[in-house]
Every structure is written in C-alpha cells, then in structure tokens.
Amino acid sequence: MDTLSFQAHLIPRFASRLTLLWLFSCVGCSAGSAENNAEGPAANTSGAGASTANADAAARGWKPPAPLDSKRAMSYLEQLCKIGSRTTGTPGMQQQQDLLAKHFEGLGGKVIWQAFDHKHPMTGEGVEVKNLIVQWKPELTTRVLLCSHYDTRPFPDRDPKNPKGLFVGANDGGSSTALLMELAHAIPAIDLKVGVDFVFFDAEELVYGADSISSRGDYFVGSTYYAQQLIAEPSANRYVAGILMDMVGDKDLQLCWDEVSFRYAPQIAKDVWSVAKELGIREFNPRVLHSIRDDHLPLNEIAKVPTIDIIDFDYPTVASRSRSYWHTMADTPDKCSGDSITKVAAVVMTWLKRQAP
Q1: Where are the domains of the chain?
Q2: Do 85 and 151 contact (CB within 8 A), yes or no?
Q3: How many beta carbons lie within 10 A of that of residue 165, not counting itself?
C-alpha cells in the first residue's frame, strides 16, 4: 500500500495505491495528518477505546463459530510464510500454488487457473501471472466473489535496515490467503443460495522500489485482467457482490469503512459491518471512511461488480514510517493473530449465509 496526501500535481499517471484522503476521525481508526499520509499508514492518536475493547475481547477468549478454528487459520499463515517469498513467477509462488490447489480440491472446491503473460518491470521479459479461482456451487449462476491477492512484494523496500531482504508478507498477502483457506472448511456446510468464487489475484504488487514516483512495475495486474475477462468473455454467471480482504491478520485489528467501497457498494459495506455488530466483533468500526486504492477498484470500475475492501491499514495501530511493519522484514507471523483472521472469516461466513439470488 502506497500512501500519499492528495495533491494532484504530485500524483503520477500510474500512481500506485494511494490513500487519497482520510475523511473523519474516531475511536479506533483515526485520521492522520498529510505528513503522516505522505510517509505511510496514518498514526493512530485516539485508539485507546478500541485497543481496550480488543484487550477485553482477548481476555474473554475468542471462540469462532464452528467449523472455523483460530489455531488452524494461524497454522495456514505460518505454512505460507515458511515458503518465503511468493512473488509472481518465482519458485516460491509455484510452491504456494501447488499447496493451495491441493488444499481447495481436497475440500471440494473446483480449481481454475487464469494464466497470462505480463512484462516483467525489471527484465522486460515475459512473466507468467496466474490468478487462482476456486468455485463453490459452480452450477449456480448468481454468484459472489471473495478475493485476496496472494503474491508478495519482491522486497521489503520500506525496511529501514535491509530494503533488499526477505519479505514473507505475513499480513500483506498471507493473512487473507490463510483466511480463505480456513473459510473453505465452512463452505461445504453452508446452505448456499448463491455460488461463491474465491479469487486469488497474482501480481497485485509486482513493484520494485518504495518511492511511488520512481518505482518500477504495476499494481493490480491480476485483478485488472480478471475484471477485463469478465467483460470480454460473457457467461451465464451473474456476479452480484464482492468482498476483497487484505491485511486482516494484525493482532490489534481495527477495520474501518473504505470510502471507495462505500462509493461503489454502500449496501454491502453496511451489511457486513452490521453482521459484525450482531456477532459482537468490535474490531469492525463503521464510523470512519478512508479511501484506498486496492484490487476492488478494477472489480468496481471495469467489471461493475459492487465490491468492498476489508482492510486494516494501520499495522501496527500506532504507526509511522519508522515503526510500521508494512513492506518491511518485520511483517512476520508473530505480528499476526489467528483470532483476527477468524473474526473476519466469521463475519464473511455469516454474510454469505444471508445471500439470496
């Protein structure tokens, strides 16, 4: 995630993910100053209430609804990170793809690969990009999307000590992938009235360099191609809603509304956060809107599938360029929580049960 204050004359034509503006501040998800936005995730100066709530919840003990399992979800995250880097077109990505295909097929999902070539930003040579699609109830034509990117950034280019070191992307890429691995245990038990596609986008950030002006590479390559194919290859399937998940494993999880999501899919956002309230999951905070460019943009703007983004961009909660784990070697499983992952999974699972054609 690349964050900049909104100054149009500074934004390049192919700007990376931009946090355009922070609209409001409240307990749990505070607005940052323009200076903080220019450097990274906004510092949280008013999160004591949410942090206390999260601590209280931890003390009570989180018990996810069956068949979700926090320990198993965490084990999936650790398994992914043990592979190491999972950058597009690398052996690590191939190892992850083999693991995921076996996992989802074993649980009854229909695995489909969407492969295409993309110009590597550094070598100029072709690199294979592979989106992974897992279909549940493929016979149903009214469908919803549950999405994640599953590639890792090539390097931890915001690491203050070693920007060319190993980046395993525990929270950034790993947590949402592990969430869908865990949610796959629940899908067969749900009396689905709509079909469900898990979509794992490749090359979400095949980008080299932390500076958004001089960095080389494109964001959202996989999701853009996927959205274009939905339009170019019409089928009987009708996709009526989507949920993108990204950076959902933070131990101190705080999830606020995204302005882009609310612009394109307000009812979905309201419904999802309402489910969280019903379940007593206070990490979902509906009182802040922030604007983040992510894989939900191509789905909304190209494919016209109303899609929201569930994302905790403050990592950790009190963050600055020098203290954030984002895009550093510190983005490791010990900074994440299986409870956080299954809380989001529980909300999505409950939301799925209520979808009707």
Answers
A1: 64-251+291-353
A2: no
A3: 12
What number of residues does the chain have?
Answer: 357
Over the stretch 6-28, which tens digit does the pLDDT of each residue have? 222 222 322 334 333 333 333 45
| Residue 88 tokens, joined | 């597009």
Closest CA to 345 of 200, 146, 159: 146
Classify each residue of 265-295 as buried b or exposed e, where b means 16 or more C-beta atoms within 10 Å of its C-beta. Answer: beebbebbbebbeebebbbbbbebbbbbbbb
d(CA 278, CA 260): 24
Phi, psi of 143 (to 5 degrees): -135, 160
Please name the amino acid found at residue 299: L
| Tens digits of residue pLDDT in 231-243 | 998 889 999 999 9
H helices of 149-264, where? 175-183, 221-232, 259-264
What pTM did the predictor assign? 0.86
Helix (H) or strand (E) holding 276: helix 266-279
Phi, psi of 298 (to 5 degrees): -60, -35
Yes or no: say if 284 and 344 are a contact pair by the CB < 8 Å rule. Answer: no
Residue 196, beta-bridge partner list? 136, 144
DSSP characters over 48-100 = HHHHHHHHHHHHH---PPTT--HHHHHHHHHHHHHH----TTSHHHHHHHHHH
64-251+291-353 maps to which CATH number?
Answer: 3.40.630.10
> How far apart (Å, rounded) are the C-alpha atoms in residues 31 and 151?
29
